[in-house]
Structure formats: structure tokens, C-alpha cells
Amino acid sequence: MNNRRTQNHIILRLLLPARGLIPLCILLSAAPLSAQEKLVIPRLQEGLIFDGVPDEDAWKAVDELPLLVYVPVFGAEPSEKSSLKIACDDECIYLGAYLWYKDRTDMRAVGKKRDYSMPTTDWLGLFLDTYFDRENTVMFWTNPNGVKTEGTTKNDMAEPENDYNFSWNTFWDTETKINDHGWSAEIRIPFSSLRFQTENNITLMGLSVLRYIPASGEFVSFPAISPEIPFAYMKASQTYPVVLEGIRPEKMFYLTPYVTGGVSQTYDLNDSGTGYEMHPKARYDAGADIKCSLTNNLTLDLTINTDFAQVEADDQKINLTRYSLFFPEKRVFFLEKSDVFDFSFLGGNNLFYSRRIGLAEGMPVRIYGGARLTGRIKNWDIGFLDMQTAASEDKSGENLGVLRVKRNILNKNSYLGSMVTSRLGAGGTYNLSYGLDGQFRVTGDDYLTLRWAQTFENDSINRVFDLSPSRLLINWVRRKQKGVAYDLSYTWSGDRFNPGLGFEAKDNYQGWRMITQYGWLPGEDAILRYHKLMLTAYTFWNTVTGLRETVSGVLKWYYEGTRGNSGEFAINWFEEDLQEPLTLGNDQATVPSGKYSFAYLSAIYNTAYSHSLSATLTAEAGKFYNGAKISFYAAPTLNIGSDIDIGLTYNFDFVRFPERDAGFVNHIAGFKGLWTFTTKTSVIGFVQYNTSVSKVVSNLRFRYNPREGNDLYLVWDEGLNTDIERESPRLPVSSGRTVLVKYTYTFRL
Question: What is the dihedral of CA 442, 443, 444, 448, to 10 degrees?
């Protein structure tokens, strides 16, 4: 449940692939899923009192699910007693649970905020692979305080840092009770909130249930899930086949209008250019979202005058690499069913990147509206999205569209697919792309992924049989934690490849990457529950000049302790050939063109999150081009009772080039506070100070969520200039302020 992603060096996340082609005849040997019994989910014979205590006669007639330890010792009997039962009726699927403790003081009841997702508290989780495609799940979590947290996983968690999110929301309910011996819970999920396929009155899904005990770092699961596979407990392929008979949910139709009102204050140069004047502006708006189920398999979303006033601000970052920084999507409209629109070239690179819609240079652009259709038609997964934006300062209004289709072949973990994107400007500009891809479970834990894409745009040479506007990925990976695993890739990105709705960390390169590792699961009496040794090597060339621009090798040791702490140590070596000067840290220093070879050490340590005070620490030190670099990152978190979370972040970068008497020191300090009065009311404060831009960014959000789909937000955003003398005329103290109130109400029709 940890949503703190490991702070890897951006150059390691580029994930440049390994050269070599795989004969397609090998694919014919792809093994189908092994035969597996199916669990028929029983129907409740009587009604329930939905109060968080599954003690009714209807529950007593349902068998308990058999549970085993996932970690720290796979297959062992759980250290604490649990009773988990799954059942359904015509409208909903239910999970009932008793979660006992030998010592009640070991229970952690931390967090009350909607969508809380930290590993500092006890959790009960339910995963559903609703299409039984062995690739995607929806997940529902609750803790002793009755928090509602849901999310999605995609691509069978092939890229753990990118393949899950906790920003997806839907309609469901949970109730919990804390007692003298632990806690109990009931979860109720309407079938109308799920998309699934029914044939001959039978619905097949995948299901897994987990209990997390932070005091011991123990995960207990149904079914038995081996930790030999990375992030196995979140994988769709590890869920257990379940059958639901005769379910007939009502078709949903949700209408969610919103209204916003407030004021913004901007500061602009006066007519004489001698100073800044404050210009207040009233802000008011309205719009609506509509969600309806066309069938059990297809959902249509419509949006009118789309608004994202409640979305939290991005973290401040400083770029010390030659690659573009990647910022994750946080807007719920684009996160829902985002797995359908995924066309990944690894490392964040994607043919479709939803932040290209409604954002320009980090600033919002009005979205007049749009439509999204997602779901399945027979064996085809379908995703369609079309949005219309208004004109911005330097760009005309645009129509932005994407169509994605996928179909399973050979086995449940293999598919063929395609994607088309379009970016059409009102002035006649256009950017089009298409892509073809396939993923094949060749045998056991080995997967082959092939992806090809091309782009076409105005004022460019457009030829189908041309590598210049093309993108290629070939990736062969063994997804395994224990023993030998590997990840071999080759990639090509032509000099005219320009995905107008995509993200590319670097342009115009080809290369290969090889990752080999050996992992150990030491056993019950060991200090470590898992550790591995990993070697990563990659190199890439400029596709036009043929010059080799980067060679890298990284030797890393990673470990996980039995109590939940983890860390890694690495030796990093790079050889860089800069054809042009490289600007670093918001123009604070420049590295001249030339060839460089350098190495540095890096380390990461994560404390166990079962304590009130926990932290993530990272450090890098060593050579950096023809100079030196020291970087440090700290993120301590303090839980005060169940209501208050305080998080601090601190980034420090020291870069020095003695030969040129150049360099810089940069600090980014952040504070994030969470105060939850109840599970329905919360206040979040977020402040960051970045010395490289001499600015403080602050964001305050109050949320009242009395029921799903009904929200009241109060949002305050402000920027402060900390060095007002850095420009002439002197800058205003405030760089801008916005105060907004937003109210949404969902009508279920």
C-alpha cells in the first residue's frame, strides 16, 4: 500500500531496450494458463444489516476463505486469526471480515481521509479482475477507521512504479467496528460500479483478498500468492477464478453538475513598465459530468466545461539530467480506466499522455467538453476519448482524440492491439499517430512485448515506410523475484517522431538495455525476508549521426527486512557524449559539449511504516561530468493519533565544476499536513520552497464528502516570490492568488 515511489535516478528510469529479434514461431509455444478450480461465490439467503459486523445468519451460512502468509514467510500460518467471507446478491458483492489480535495494542488505526493509502495502518483489501483478462484489477481497501480507498492496477504490474493509482473513484460502501480483540469490516460493491462480461448467465472474474498487519509487516492472502513474482499481491494474474451466477445489476446513470465561485488576483506590469499592479478577477463557472452504462461491458462518460479546481499541485523538481521530467496525471477524469489507453514504451514514455490535454506549460487550458467510451465488446477491449479545448495565449483551440483496441490471443496474458491519436488545431495544424503492439506470455514467467508507432504532422515529410517518424520497442522480460530474472530491450525513436498526445523523455535515439538479477527469499529465521543483486547496462546512439551518446552500468543490491524496512546500495557509472551544451538546474549551470566519464555511489533507505515516525532517505555522491555532485533527499512522516499526518520533504543538490569555477547549491523544502476530523471531512495543506526559482508554492484544500459523489471543496492557491530584487522592476511578493469554492452533487437516475 506504499504510495511513496522509490526515488530512482531519472537516467535509470529511461529503460532503454536490448538489441535482437525473436522469431514469431516461438510464440506458438506460449502456454495457456494452467487448469484451476473456480470458486462459486455463494448468494446470501437473507438480508444483511450493513453495520461493519458480519454476524447475521446470512453470513454464518458462508464458508471462510482459506488464508496463508504472503510475506514475510510465504505459506506459513498467519500469526493473527482472521475470518474472511465473500458473498453476493442480485445487486452487490460483499466482503465480511473479523480481524483479531492476540494483543489488541498491535492494531494500527491511522488515517481517516478518503483515499488515504499509507502503510502505517491496518488494511483489508479486495482485488477484482472483473473481465478476467489477467491484466487489470480494481481494488478496494478499508482500515479500522472505515476509510474508503480504491484504485486500479494495469499491465499486470509489469512496471510497478507506473502501473497502479489510487485516484480512481467509484460508488461503494464500507463499515467497520473496533472491538476489544481487533476489528471487523463489511465491504459492499454494487455490480453497477463494475464493468464485466456475462455469458449464458455466468460471470467469470478474478478475486484476491488481503489483510495487512503493519506491526509485523505481515500480509495474509487468499489465494496463496507466492512472493517469487514482483508485486504479486497486486497482480491480476495471481487472482483466483470466481464465478457469479445470475447477477442482473441495474444500469447506472449518474449526473454530476458542479458550480464554482471565487476570486483570483494576478500581478501584471503597469503601462509604463515600472512596477506591478494587482488585478482581481471574479471566478465563477458551472459544468457537469455524466456517466452511464450502455451495457454491463460499456461505460460512456460525458463532460461539459470540465473543471479540475480541486486537484493538488505538482511537486517542485530540479532537473539534473538530459531528459525531460515526467509528472504523473492527478485528474480523476483521466485516471479512470487509464489502463485501456496505455501504450507504454517504458520509463514513462507513452504514445498517449493525458497531461497533454487541458494543460500547456503546466498552466490550465479550458476544456469545453468531451466524451469517453470504455469497456469490452466480446473479446475486444475498447477505449475512445475525444476532448475539445479552448484557445490559449499562443495556441488555437484543439480537438484531441484517442482510440485504443486490444484483443486477447493465445492465452489470458497475451494480446494484440492498436492505437490512433489525433491533435487537430482550429488553424489547420494537425498531429496524428498510430501504433501497433502485442504482448505474449511465451512460457512460464517470460513475456515478449512488441510495439511500433509512427507520427504524421503538418509541415513535415509524411511517409509510411520511413523510420524517421517511427518508434519501436522490443522487450523480453522474466517477471520473477527469486532466482534468475532478466529484462532485455531494444528501442528506436526517429528524429521526426513527435507524438502530439504522448510523452518522450528523450528524442532521436536508438539503443539497448539489459537487466539481470538474482534474488533470494532466505526463509523464516533470516534477518532479511528478501534481497537481490542486480546489474543494469545500457547504451544508445543518435539515430541521425550514429554517435554513441550514453553508456551506463549500474550494480545494485536491494533488500527488504522482515519488519518492513528496505533499502538499496548502488555503484553507478556513466559515459556521456554531449553534442550540445547541457543546461542544469533551471539554468543555474551549463556543461560544455564534449565526452565525459564519471561514477558515483547512491543509497536509499525506507524505515518500517508501522511506527508513528517513518522516513525515506536517499543520497548520491561522486563525480558528475567534469565536476562533482552531492544530492540528498529526506521525507519523514509523523502520525499523531488517527487524525493528523505531518510530512516533510527536503531535496538538497550540490553541483560543482572546479575547472570552470561554476556550480550551484539548490534546496527544495516541502511540508504536507493532513487533518481529518472524520472520514468525511479533511484539510490538506501543501507548501514547497524552491531556491532555484526563488518561489514558495502553497495549496490548501478543505473537503467535505458526506457521501460518494457529493463534495464541497474550498481551495486556496498562492505563490510567493522570495527574492523580489532578482528582476527589474522589483517583483511583487505574491506571484498570484486564487480562492475557490466548488460544490458537486451526483444524481443517481
Answer: -20
Query: Do residues 734 and 267 lie in contact, with contact meaning Cβ atoms separated by under 8 Å?
Result: yes
Task: State residue 24's pLDDT score.
Answer: 29
Burial of 24 (0-12, 13-18, 19+ CB in 10 A): exposed
What span, in angstroms and rounded, lies between the C-alpha atoms of 37 and 254? 37
- CA of residue 285 relative to chain centroid, distance: 30
Place of cell 545494485: 556
Asked if 222 contacts 209 with a C-beta cutoff of 8 angstroms, the reply is yes
What's the CA gap between 259 and 280, in Å, rounded? 20
Query: Do 397 and 318 fall into the same domain?
Result: yes
Q: Are strands 589-591 and 182-190 parallel, antiparallel or unpaired?
A: unpaired
- Number of separate domains in the chain: 2
pLDDT in tens, 167-186: 778 889 999 999 999 999 99
347 and 239, same structural domain? no
The boundaries of the domain holding residue 502 are 10-17+297-708
3-class SS at 24?
helix
CATH of the domain at 554: 2.40.170
How many Å apart are CA 721 and CA 503, to the nearest integer? 31
Q: State the Cα torsion 164-561-82-111 to the nearest 10°.
A: -60
- The answer on 318 and 219 residing in a single domain is no
Q: Work out the mean pLDDT of the chain and round it to a whole number.
A: 88
Q: How far is CA 520 from CA 8, 72, 526, 557, 597, in A?
A: 22, 13, 11, 11, 33
- Which helix (DSSP H) or strand (DSSP E) does residue 568 occupy? strand 566-578
